[in-house]
Amino acid sequence: MNVKRWIALGIAIGLFFISMGMQFLTSLATADFESMFNLENEQMFSQKVVESGAPTSQIAVLHLNGVIEDTTPNALLNTGTYNHQKFLDMLEEAKEDRSVKGIIIRVNTPGGGVVESAEIHEKIVEIQNEAEKPVYVSMGNTAASGGYYIAAPADKIVAHKATLTGSIGVIMESFNFAEFADEHGIDFNTIKSGEYKDIMSMSREMTEEERNILQAMIDDMYEDFVQVIVDGRGMSEDRVRELGDGRVYTGTQAQEEGLVDGIGSLEDTIAMMKEEQELGNAQVFEYEQGIGLDQFLGTTMKSMIGTETNLIEIKDLLRDSNAPRAMYLYSR
């Protein structure tokens, strides 16, 4: 390569980095840091008023959207809609805020992790017992499996007639590439410390003993799910098991079976809470979380390096799927 080509290549590389730098500086210059990071707000989250009323008597509306998972392999590039820790923090904020007299959780999720669902459920029960605040659930398009698990202890559950809910149960899945590997001459080398260290391995068939071990785990988690509904809905264990065979129900069917209390929208749920809890003059607000620095930088980086981040996210997904986990999840 002659000198002129080296110079041209150097200029091109320089322009590329200058362009990336300008995009980053532009993002910084146009960012609303005051609202983004809540610099002047003592509270963890800002409040968006959706119905006017007395600020000393409030109803807090929290939105739970997406799969309930606490998995952030690449925090800088993960700008997804659901953030487990922040949702727990919102619940804690609503619990501690003395002006909040009632809480409504708008649930739109197919469920998610067993542990994450249990953490939300425990926080709701804590709010009811320690802060003595009513918690209502308003179901959106889907409030299935883990979505129903967290709804079970609510003082009232309201669904749309077309909501998909139920899916009471536990599932654990993994891939098995053993046959494909044999056909294509792919060998797997596994060195392990114990007989069951590679249980649910993708490289071989599962043994009957391994299946029994995992089934016992799933059955134990299912027992917990059943008990949560028995306690939360006041149903008999036999009735819960009858309903909890994994199937989904529409909102109308769920009401007929006693899984939800009423049919209506989020607005209807707010009206119900106001009337039933004597909060007629309450101000209704939704929490708005400021974008964290990692989310801001992640969004900026995505705009700068484009679709290559999709490959990183796919790689993280495959890596995560290689570690099977039990889920309260409705999978279609």
UniProtKB/TrEMBL annotation:
InterPro entries xref list: ClpP/crotonase-like_dom_sf (IPR029045), Pept_S49_SppA (IPR004635), Peptidase_S49 (IPR002142), S49_SppA_C (IPR047272)
What GO terms in the biological process aspect are recorded for it?
proteolysis
Q: Return one GO MF term.
A: serine-type peptidase activity
- Does Cell inner membrane show up as a keyword for this record? no
Query: Which superkingdom?
Result: Bacteria
Query: What residue stretches are annotated with the Peptidase S49 domain?
Result: 129-279
Pfam families, A to Z: Peptidase_S49
- Name the UniProt key words of this record, in alphabetical order: Hydrolase, Protease, Serine protease
Which family, according to the similarity comment?
A: Belongs to the peptidase S49 family.
Quote the PANTHER family the UniProt record gives: PEPTIDASE S49, SIGNAL PEPTIDE PEPTIDASE SPPA-RELATED
Kindly provide the name given to this protein in its UniProt entry: Signal peptide peptidase SppA
Tell me the name of the encoding gene. sppA
